[in-house]
Amino acid sequence: MTIFTQKLSALSSAEEFLEFFSVEYDQSVVHVNRLHILKRFNQYLRATPGTHKMEDDALRIVCRDLLKKAYEDFVRSTPAQEKVFKVFRDQEGQSIGLTSLKTTLPSQQRP
Length: 111
What we know:
By secondary structure, this protein is mainly alpha-helical. Helices cover 63% and strands 0% of the residues. α3 packs across α4. The longest helix is centred in the middle third of the chain and has 21 residues, at 27-47.
């Protein structure tokens, strides 16, 4: 494990990643989307070929660019639109009407 990957593995919060890679961010965006940003960053990183063979300096640049891209996804969009997590993908095209919700309330159920 290189020094860079050791430092990277010690990071845990979205803010720590953004600060480590010197990506400017709005705390209100990160507060609402922190897990989505990190998940998208991971997706981008996994989809980038050859990262496991890169030298630390090159990998740092790639990671910074991918993290910035992941963050910007949620500046321009919402978690529901980006569908990073399975729960959002499973709900695609489905909607729940108010009438169906009312029928689940105990006061609306008939004996």
